[in-house]
Amino acid sequence: MADQNQWWRDAVIYQIYPRSFADADGDGVGDIDGIRAHLHHLRDLGVDAIWMSPWYPSPMADAGYDVADFRDIDPVFGTLAGAEALITEAHEAGIRMIVDIVPNHISSAHPWFKAALADPSAKEREYFWFRPGTEMPTSWTGEFGGTTWTQTPDGSWYLHLFTPEQPDLNWEHPDVRAEFESILRFWFDRGVDGIRIDSAALLLKDTTFPEVVDGQPHPFHDLDGVHDVYRAWRRVADEYDDRALIGEVWMPEVDRFARYLRPDELHAAFNFDFLGCAWDPTLMRECIDRTLDAHATIGAPPTWVLSNHDVTRHVTRYGREKTTFSFEENLDGTPVDLELGTRRARAAALLSLSLPGSAYVYQGDELGLWENENIPPEEFADPMWGRRGHSRDGCRVPLPWSGDEQPFGFSTGTPWLPQPAEWKDRTVQAQTGDPSSMLELYRAAIHLRRREEGLHRSTMAWLDAAPGVLAYTRGPGFASVLNMSGAPVPLPDHHSCLLASGPLDGTLLPPDTAVWLRLHPGK
Ligand code: NOJ
């Protein structure tokens, strides 16, 4: 039954961050009805699937990644009936739906945790990591910085790798495993086509709770036992037709990363190596080769991700002197050349959409949005701010749809985060029909990708090219060329130019520009 069409192998997947997509009820926060009213934007863009960041009931201690009930929808976003209607309408528009499941932790407002706190002898106590003692059980640093244990009124400690409002679940417990398999079925039964798995490598803990020591196995990153969880999830997914499991696996070691994609585990995982890579031809080519090699060994499709709701938007990153991304190095407030960043982001769009595998578009990438680095700190909602001195809110700003001033058609109220005034040129309305806009570039590229056979499942082959130029074929008749050198370069021999990320200079390809070429007449 499973793996008939394997749509995830070459899909273009659009991430919706529901708080910031479109607000139908005027409270300043995006919602499901807002998404339903703007589905045509995604249909026009031509994406194959939507990945919906969490929409479940939540106290929003971490913008919904603190889930209080996986089988319902937070009232700020709408209702379960609305979610079901969206799934149906998306399917009618030819768009698949992926929901976000957060298995490492739940909200401290979830009934399990409330029961565990209320009665130390409750069975739910075992669903978490409670430890007695006057001292904190370990001195681990949390994923947002800070400590990982909070003391309860009865004197015991509970583990949370993120905020205290996100207690970690005990994945050794069979009830926890059974519950999540049931949650997967709940959403598969409602027709969702895929599951994005949050913090996928963190679920298992070393139950002796050792300290983190260099050179020793890490006590909570990537423990071997986590693979049994995903083998069980894969069995659930395989009970249905063509459903995909997509892991958020942040892992510098590609061989460890690839283990999540073995044939009986996840179908795909996000490529953070590519996302964090510098705008540098040597490093980018190495990253692409590393990615292709790692996936080839296990037959899994690579993914190409430029931005998401956790990282600085790539228009901003690529416009800085230092173009890498990592949580360890805070580059907030360093000078940004937005024109340069935009030019590179346009070229990166053609790169990411022409490599073999699936490509991700984070809402607003298609509008060329940049990071809003001017949000007053008192308006930050992100719990990372205050722990790491960096807020992810700058990439979570509500989308500009139309009009000349805030809220740019996002809402009839005040958006939950401020939008830059300059986004009047970045609205969907302003860009539609303007052939030089980012939106029209994305539309053209995604539609071409659909039509172009070479861009489906064929492999790629590097072409000889001048230093600083990444050139490759997809199938016999199609080539993609990206000039990352500082100077114009001649285009390789070709029949016609299908799409360019910026104006060509006669027969020369200017710096930070990409082009898709037809190599021979006909196809
Ligand atoms: C990864 C999510 O993408 C991020 O937004 C969240 O804060 C953490 N996991 C914790 O759930």
Describe the structure concisely for a colleague.
The protein has helices spanning 32-37, 39-45, 80-92, 111-118, 174-189, 226-237, 254-259, 272-276, 281-296, 314-317, 338-352, 428-431, 438-451, and strands spanning 12-16, 49-52, 96-101, 130-131, 149-151, 157-159, 194-197, 244-247, 268-269, 303-305, 358-362, 460-462, 469-474, 478-483, 489-490, 496-500, 508-509, 513-518. The protein has 523 residues and is an alpha/beta fold.
What name goes with the CATH superfamily of the largest domain?
Answer: Glycosidases
* Overall body shape: globular
Helix content: 10-25%
Strand order of the largest sheet: 9-8-7-3-2-1-11-10
Number of strands: 18
Number of domains: 3
Text of the CATH class of the largest domain: Alpha Beta
Bound molecules: 1-deoxynojirimycin
- Overall CATH architecture of the largest domain: Alpha-Beta Barrel
Radius of gyration: 23 Å
Low-confidence stretches: none
Strand content: 5-15%
Which class best fits the helix and strand makeup?
alpha/beta
Distance between the termini: 34 Å
SS field, number of helical segments = 13
Question: On the 0-100 scale, what is the average pLDDT?
Answer: 96
Q: What oligomeric state do these chains adopt?
A: single chain
CATH topology grouping of the largest domain: TIM Barrel
How many strands, which pairing sense, and closed or not: the largest β-sheet? 8 strands, parallel
What does this structure look like?
The chain has 523 residues and is α/β, with parallel strands linked by helices. The chain has 3 domains: 4-102 and 271-443, Glycosidases (TIM Barrel), CATH 3.20.20; 111-159, Oligo-1,6-glucosidase, domain 2 (Alpha-Beta Complex); 460-518, Golgi alpha-mannosidase II (Immunoglobulin-like, Sandwich), CATH 2.60.40.1180. The protein has helices spanning 32-37, 39-45, 80-92, 111-118, 174-189, 226-237, 254-259, 272-276, 281-296, 314-317, 338-352, 428-431, 438-451, and strands at residues 12-16, 49-52, 96-101, 130-131, 149-151, 157-159, 194-197, 244-247, 268-269, 303-305, 358-362, 460-462, 469-474, 478-483, 489-490, 496-500, 508-509, 513-518. The strands form 4 sheets. It has an 8-stranded parallel sheet. Strands 12-13-14-18-16 form a 5-stranded antiparallel sheet. The protein has a 3-stranded antiparallel sheet with strand order 4-6-5, with no helix packed on it. A hairpin with a 3-residue loop joins strand 13 and strand 14 (478-483). It is globular and about 75 Å long. It starts with 11 loop residues before the first strand and ends in a 5-residue tail after the last strand. 1-deoxynojirimycin binds next to loops. 1-deoxynojirimycin (NOJ) is lined by residues 62, 65, 102, 162, 198-199, 248, 309-310.
